[in-house]
Amino acid sequence: NRTFLFCFVFFCFFAGKCVMAVKWRRWPGRLVYTMQDSPGQTRACHSGIVSAARDTLFPQSSSTVRPFSEIPGLWKNSLSNLYTFWKLDGFRNIHRIMVHNFNTFGPIYREKIGYYESVNIIKPEDAAILFKAEGHYPKRLRVEAWTSYRDYRNRKYGVLLKDGEDWRSNRVILNREVISPKVQGNFVPLLDEVGQDFVTRVHKKIERSGQNQWTTDLSHELFKYALESVSTVLYGERLGLLLDYIDPEVQHFIDCITLMFKSTCPMLYIPPSLLRRVGAKVWNDHVKAWDGIFNQADRCIQNIYRQLRKESGAQGKYPGVLASLLMLDRLSIEEIKASVTELMAGGVDTTSITLLWTLYELARHPDLQEELRAEVTAARTASQGDRLQMLKMVPLLKGALKETLRLHPVAVSLQRYIAEDIVIQNYHIPSGTLVQLGLYAMGRDHRIFPHPEQYLPSRWLPTESHYFRSLGFGFGPRQCLGRRIAETEMQLFLIHMLENFRIQKQRQVEVRSTFELILLPKKPILLTIKPLHSS
Q1: Is the pLDDT reported for residue 464 higher than 80?
Q2: Binding-site residues from annotation for heme
Q3: For 492-496, what is the mean pLDDT?
Q4: Is 180 helix (H, G, I), strand (E, B) or coil?
């Protein structure tokens, strides 16, 4: 109930509690964790890339620098802003509100709602300045509900939730096993097998329909596909989610993941510590969900140890990220379990929703769908069916995923607490300020992307002109740790779908998005899937 929620927050504000500090500080961070957490470059290389892009492509104006207090925006009456935000149902519409604010105030604005304060930017050249100022240990907003559970159960934080030197030392080790370009070859055979099983499942659905087509909301099927994929890569074992019968133990794992996401959302608005003290059901559900998820990780670790003892060093197929980290023996078991579990949690809804939006756009653009199909067919012929080589020959398909993340980003914004004073749009911004880059707003700005309302994957083909415009996975040392897994998974999925099916849309009605932890379709997307040989 929005009225109850607002009254509750309003009371806490005047009571001098930290409710709003947690609520408004933490809430936007939910948008970011999924697609921003990893480097591949050294800090020097990262800074060089940023500096070159900023200084060469985006020269700064020499106008007099204006003080922080003169940044336009909504920051002088935080209570009034809070009430207006509540009235506009800003919790679900933050992405559209940011677009409105940029249109009203220009490319930079300052905002204060309750105790939450940030500076918001939209231009790619300003993003270059932001990332150069993120410091040696980039810091962003945490998922408060997740850290509260770990504190409650005395569990280790994974790399997603860590900061400082502890984050950096863990991150360097994980990068080599998860995001290095060299590891993609390990992931492809595992993910290709899952993709083939998804195709088999869709063919069965079509056959059972008796109509040579299958019309459905694919969101649940894509959720299972994404969970099966990420679990296979991380844990090295199949869950069997694409079978007609699902093992009760595996079903419990699915239920725990679903409950974890569901129970996280209410705690974006009310501090978990308060909910824990009053014994709220949502907190108890959250604890129950994470307990089940970590229990699954424990079972996987036990299975891996048994398998390693059985094989005693025999060389076989890639055993998964978890087994690789255990054999590497550079992190403690608890640290490995924490980071792998966070990777799994951040890699389900994010990829499944991106794939759903991509299929939606391909259904709306049948000519583009045929063009992509031709590219995939040519790549298969040229690579002689080698999937890893195929992935290097489908630039338009990769452009389609970039275009999806431009129009339908999982994250509304990327955030950093800057580690040094900076100047953006000739305004001074002091060190320690939270600065947000509006991804959704940037992707729909005609001054940055010509014809922003059009779905045009070809706009991404000339790569030299796209500095700091494609940031769906973040940038720099804290970009998405699961990026390599997610990109490989989504590219292989689209290859399989284009090789086997034609995707059509039921109605030509535009589907809008709503914010619920991540950006989701506001209503079900119904798609019709036909075998490729169907007329």
Answers
A1: no
A2: 480
A3: 98
A4: coil
